[in-house]
Amino acid sequence: MVYIRKRSTFGCAISASQRGGPAGSGARQGSALVSTLVVFAAVSGLLVASSALSTVEVKQSQHSLQDLQASSIAEAGIEMGKLTFDQAAKRGTFNPIDGIAAMFGTGNELELYQGAQLTDDGGRVGAYSARATVINRTPTSIELRIDSTGYWPDAPANLPEGRNPQAWNSQSVTLRYALESSQVFNYGYFINNWGWLYGNTITMNGNARSNGQFDAGGYKPTINGSANYDEISWNGAAATLSGYQDDNGDGLEDGQDGGVFSGWDIVGADHVRGSGGNTQNQHDFEDQVPMPNLSDLSMYEDVATDQGGTISIGSSVVVNGVLGDDSGEMQHLYLEGTLANPIVLNGPVVVRGDVIIKGYVTGKGVIYSGGNTYVPDSIHYVNGPTSLRPTSNSQAATEAWLTDNWDKDFLGLFSAENVVVGDFTSSTWRSYVSSWMSSSMNRSAEDAGEDGIPNTYAGRDGIVGTSDDDVLEGDGQFTVEYYSAADLALGVIPPGFSVGDVIPGSGEDIDGDGQYDGTTTLADLDFQDELKPTKFAGNMPAAGISNYKDIASMYANNLDATLYTNHSFCFVVLGSQPARINGAMVARNENIIYGTPTFETNYDARLLGGGAGQLGLMLPRTLAPVEVLQWRHLDEDPLRNMVGGDSGEVTP
């Protein structure tokens, strides 16, 4: 506005001189000219000052933009570092923490990038350097710091001699990678495939979830969901729950959450009875919950040894930590408990071969099996919970139930292969299970595509030929990743593997064993060895078992246990008594056929709280989401000696 006003005054003076006038007007014109020159000089000064000020402002604006660019480049370096460690965790499939730690070798520092150039649409936009440092490590977690500096237009070493970056920015982030008890144990019924509840007399007391479609068909199962919590604490006298999960989003902590969760759609949703039949308790197209990988049990062997886990029968200890790890030791375990002489559980144990278990158990413990787990007949707790479930889903009622049952018996059966319940040698049993195994609705071959779920080729829109098609499904190829020379250089290839081997758990390797698995068949349920005392530790009959039907039943109607397999859960039960699983059932595929009046699963609330729960240290684990502990800007470039030059000097 100042410039406009001055230019207007100058213009009026010229107009007045051109009009002419009386004598003496020449002096007045000279005076006017002098005045005009003064004004012009003033205006010129203002213009020069304004120009200089504008130049400074432009330069400051340029520097601000360059600083912002450098900051963004530094953040890119951190994100690339995080991506590197995420990939390393995947390459350490059996224990993701080992995969990350392996990158550091015997040291605690790792140079990730040195002047790595950042491009956008093919154009160079700067460079970054990054270094990682291990802060703390335990068997189940690792904390590390990533320092990253962004340089604009390039890193010092990439610029001509004598020239420094025009802008730089240094940032530091501290991350925590940790294993947690798998979230699959938040559910009484969990299927890493398509879930099926085909029966009007099925009752799920607890939450139900499938990573694929959840199908009630034309049936009317009952699902009585329950709220989940992040943690359970115990003060020696009472249990306290915290971290209520409001999954229906109503803002209330009233116990009315939980229900049915599905990675695909929910079919027959309107037929479901119980709280799981309410729209607000049905959650479709949810993110998949990853299954733990039990293909390598070495991590759990360490846990079993560290915790001193044992199994006893009477006064005899039949498993001490790990069965099958010593030379000449039997690989398999047979356990049969009676009410007078039950199986005594004490913490986690690992059995490298098959497990056969039935009868009465007491104590608290879990059994990891490297083979199949066979349950020929019912399993009963000697000192089980006083009731199957809390009186209601409220927090107060759940805490009261937990307090009353904190020290009651608990059994976990976690199998690297299949779980087989009942007399699987019976022709009736085999006919039912074989038919369901081969069903197109229950596919198990590892050619399930990118999402690991069969029957999803057409994508969510159900239209073949659109962008969401899972084109890898059913293509006849085992699409996986392989260890590379770069992995070797980084040191992330675990013992026993080489460059060119399949990365366990990658791509279509659903069970994480690094091998292609076709459709599960009855042959996969066969024993590895003869049923003799020379092959099985425990209390197998002295004469061995010549016919499995002698110890097995088609009426195994009660399972007091939490059961897990990333393969097939096979169960045929008949009789006039209700069939019950009191704990949880987690599987890749389930082949449950019941001929009893009802079938029900009663979720054991002691599984609540995951890793912070009562049973957290004994449950199978997966990698938790990475936790950012700290993110800060640095006043000095900690990487200046790594990239050459001196980033501390900024060229204007």
Structure description:
There is one protein chain. This protein has helices at 2-18, 25-91, 96-102, 298-307, 395-405, 427-437, 485-490, 640-643, and strands at residues 109-120, 123-138, 141-152, 167-181, 189-191, 195-196, 202-205, 208-210, 214-215, 222-224, 229-234, 239-244, 260-262, 266-267, 282-283, 310-313, 316-320, 322-323, 332-337, 343-351, 355-369, 373-375, 379-381, 410-415, 419-421, 536-538, 558-559, 562-574, 579-595, 599-603, 621-623, 627-634. By secondary structure, the chain is an alpha/beta fold. Strands 1, 2, 3, 4, 31 and 32 form a six-stranded antiparallel sheet that branches. It has a five-stranded parallel barrel with strand order 21-22-25-28-24.
Quick structural overview:
The protein is α/β, with parallel strands linked by helices and 652 residues long. It has helices at 2-18, 25-91, 96-102, 298-307, 395-405, 427-437, 485-490, 640-643; strands at 109-120, 123-138, 141-152, 167-181, 189-191, 195-196, 202-205, 208-210, 214-215, 222-224, 229-234, 239-244, 260-262, 266-267, 282-283, 310-313, 316-320, 322-323, 332-337, 343-351, 355-369, 373-375, 379-381, 410-415, 419-421, 536-538, 558-559, 562-574, 579-595, 599-603, 621-623, 627-634.
